[in-house]
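Example 239.
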Amino acid sequence: MTSVLKEQTVVVIGGSSGFGLATVEMLDALGARVIVGSRNENRLAAAKAAFPALVTRQVDITDRASTERFFADVEMLDHLVVTAAELPSGRLAETNLDKLRPAIESRLFGSLHAVQRAVPVMRTGGSVVLFSGQAARKGFPGESMGAASCGAIESLVRTLAVELAPIRFNALCPGSAWTPVFRAFFGDHAEEAAEKFGASLPLKRLARTSEIAHAVVFLLENTYVTGSTLVVDGGFGVT
Ligand SMILES: NC(=O)c1ccc[n+]([C@@H]2O[C@H](COP(=O)([O-])OP(=O)(O)OC[C@H]3O[C@@H](n4cnc5c(N)ncnc54)[C@H](OP(=O)(O)O)[C@@H]3O)[C@@H](O)[C@H]2O)c1
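Predicted structure in complex with NAP:
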């Protein structure tokens, strides 16, 4: 069966790594026209080398002017996916708020900058997928700002699904997977953390990035889903 995404234009901010890159790979295979944005030129070049049909462009979505420049050449699009976010952590009593602020600046304001530029050029039938995380749903010491930023995304899509209908807005809450974010978060203990955390889940392993990409594609393709958060976490939320 041919995907409705064939020949549609999808912008993926964060598409040079991890879940974003896996999503780009799936969209490319389905015949979508994919425009990838992120900050690091080398990672963009590597994505382009792997999938030559991609259009790649640098953007820092925490910076409104940079986001405006990125979208200036996008005349029309069908869908926007934003996976990009920073995850600074630290216990509130011991941490300067300036260290934690990038969580909100990237995930919440970054997504809002992108949505504001994408919506005016979105074709009828368009949709947006924003990324949340498990911190929105369970308490982890040191993750207050990650939790607040992910929770903000889950509430944001409910409101924007009404305010900007018929554009569909959904959030994806992924489980943990072995990506640069996971490795950076656990540092020297990443392998040990991956093994321990994976074993604690009902499905006994971390997510594959392709499993998260598959869920993004579902949210883009299914024309009756809006205002929802799709949780794809190997059962973490029910333990
Ligand atoms: N991996 C996990 O275990 C896990 C679990 C739960 C939730 N999540 C969430 O899933 C999302 C994706 O995670 P991931 O594991 O795929 O991370 P990743 O592999 O580090 O990918 C993040 C992507 O976003 C880009 N990016 C970051 N900040 C940006 C900015 N300000 N402007 C533009 N691009 C930016 C990065 O490229 P540049 O650095 O070159 O800009 C990269 O392409 C994140 O929101 C994360 O919090 C991940």
